[in-house]
Amino acid sequence: MKKTIFCLVMSFCLVPVAYGKSKAKETPSPSATTTPSITPTPTPGPHWTPPPPVDESAKWINFRVASALQSDINGTNLYSLVDLYLRRRLDKNNVSAEGDIRLTKDFSNSYNADTFQIRTADVSYSDFFLTAAAGRLNVGDPLSPMKFFGNYSTMGIRRLDGIQLTLPIHFSVGVVDSGQSIDTSSTALSLFYFPSIFSTSYVNYDTTQSFFLGQARVSANLWDIPFIVRFNMGGCSNDFYDYSVVNGDLTYSASLAFTVKRDFDFYCEYGVQDATFSNQSNVFGFGVHAQHIYTIGPLSIDDLIGEMQVPIGFSLNNTFTGGNNLNSSASLLPQKSWFVELKTRIKAINLNFYVTNSTGDYTFARLNKTNALSPGPGPITQPVGMGNEVDGLGVPFVGSSYSNISYIGDVEVTF
Questions:
Q1: Is residue 16 included in any domain, yes or no?
Q2: Model pTM above 0.85
Q3: How many domains is the chain built from?
């Protein structure tokens, strides 16, 4: 009897122990255990960002089709030209670019173009502290306010292959309360490097013809009159031609331009092309540019430009103002030169007229086989450089003498 009771008590005590375990403390079976998977680690590669898309609003394409009649030192010529202008304006990526392509042909029954020119082709990057550009640069407007004469620091050349670096500067001077303060907006320091400024026939890229040019520009507004002051100074390490900018010494110029009532620009420039002969290679030029003049019916007078070039130094030895190093008896003293440009329009057809008595003083166009040697040295068989170019049409324009009037007339449409 006692044995029976003991067995019942033991059975009762063992049952709760067997089924009272917490599930949390249950030992999982081997078949229910999950083995964690190992994910392969990707091999690190170089960071690459695709080029940003071009903003369509930043792209600009324009055309010019023109026919021109020109009479100057090269005789009377009738020709047609087609210009293609390609622009990428400065965009959110701080990049801009431009290219100008020209095809020219004389009047004839031929379909062939006589000349194919890449007039400008440069790429630039601009940041808040620096702008850099390289390629075939248009240095005409940055270096001088003159539309025809001028650019005395580059012998009148307006387009050159090279590099440009520009550092913008912003500051204010004067007393604000007195109303005589000057607030600058486009003040900058620029440095230009040109491997050579000679024509293709005489160019040498071994750095012996390297030409450096620095500029300080102050653009400001005084008494509600915007003005720009430019100071240019540069030089070449070797002396190729005395009285020119490639003289082995310094060349410098200064200019002033200001606008009155938005439609009248007044400007002037003083230049010394050879600091060694500063009193024999100096010159002064000035001009006025009137815009938006008058419209009557379909005819509009859009622009009128008048300029005068006045030699200050007179020397029979200066080949660039009439001197002759090969035959002194043929030397001439420089004279005053003038230039007039008139731009008119009938609806969308542009009619432009240019007249001058300029013989190309203070430019390489003065050099020829009868008065100078080449940079070689040796006889000049090809032009060393061009003369002054007309504004807009952009063709060299050199008369045969001070007493003869040369002219250009052209009809063109831009679109």
A1: no
A2: no
A3: 1
Backbone phi and psi for residue 320, each to the nearest 5 degrees, phi listed first = -90, 0
What is the domain-level CATH number for residue 64? Answer: 2.40.160
What tokens were used for 155? Answer: 């012998």
HEC letters along 390-413: CCCCCCECCCCCCCCCEEEEEEEE
CA dist list (Å): 29 to 23, 26, 32, 33, 34: 13, 9, 5, 7, 11
**Cα angle 331, 336, 337; round to 5:** 105
CA 309 to chain centre: 25
341: its two tokens = 């440009």
- Residue 116 resides in a domain: yes
pLDDT band at 26 (very low <50, low <70, confident <90, very high): very low
Q: What are phi and psi of 48, to 5 degrees?
A: -135, 135
Q: Among all chains, which residue has been given the structure tokens 């907006």? A: 185
Give, in degrees to the nearest 5, the angle at Cα 93 between 89 and 95.
Answer: 45
135, 365 Cβ separation under 8 angstroms: no
CB count in 10 Å sphere of residue 377:
9
User: What digits encode the pLDDT tens for the residues 167-178?
Assistant: 988 655 444 444
Strand partners, 285: 269, 309
Does the CA dihedral 126-132-137-142 come out positive or negative?
A: positive
Distance CA 318, CA 227 (A): 33
The parent domain of residue 260 ranges over 56-414
> Computed from CA positions of residues 156, 161, 165, 166, in that sequence, does the dihedral angle turn out positive or negative?
positive
Whether 373 contacts 379, CB under 8 Å: yes
In a domain? residue 352: yes
Alpha-carbon distance of 351 to 413, in angstroms, equals: 9
Determine the residue type at 302.
Answer: D
Q: Is 222 domain-assigned? A: yes
Separation CA 331–CA 323 (nearest Å): 4
